[in-house]
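Researcher: I'm preparing a figure for a lab meeting and need a structural model of a single chain. I don't have an experimental structure, so a prediction will have to do for now. The sequence is pasted below. Please return the structure as tokens so I can convert it later.
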Amino acid sequence: QSEFGLRRRVSGEWEDQVVKTLKDELGGNFAGTSNVYLAMKHNVKPSGTMAHELYMALQGYYPLHLVQKETWKQWMDEYRGKNGILLSDIFGFNACLKDCDWFVANSFQGFRHDSGDPLWWGEKLISFYESVGIDPRTKVFCWSDTLNNITIGRIFDQFRNRVKIAFGVGTWIARSEERFSRNAETD
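Model: Understood. Here is the structure written out token by token.
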């Protein structure tokens, strides 16, 4: 699991406590935080994915039908093979897969789910990878949309041993102290 709460956190102090607790409680299962300062402070890996903002900014420079491909091109040019995880929901997942090809899919470690049905998304992404000749077991599937213990369990049960599973938790634990509980059953 990674902590992705920076954009929606209640406060810097609360996010700091969340990162410290996740590190202490999850140990080696805690992949890091998207907050670079807190990653340094707590000696964990800075861990994140593409964000919505780059796509949004490029909408001011390119025709809408080119924004997605141009974003990927610029990202790949910048990170030169260390591309990380592609955000898949900017213009809808179907539009993402329509614009994606083997080169783009192979250039990223995986995709991030950030809206819609997580099980449908995972199955559709497996089918996509198989259709372009990529073994989905070699790719990271990162879920980050309104995760709770029940949703995480359902995702894990359906996709274990089929893909590399990752979770980016943030909104619910970074916004409210009451929601930050290892025993939370609902969001």
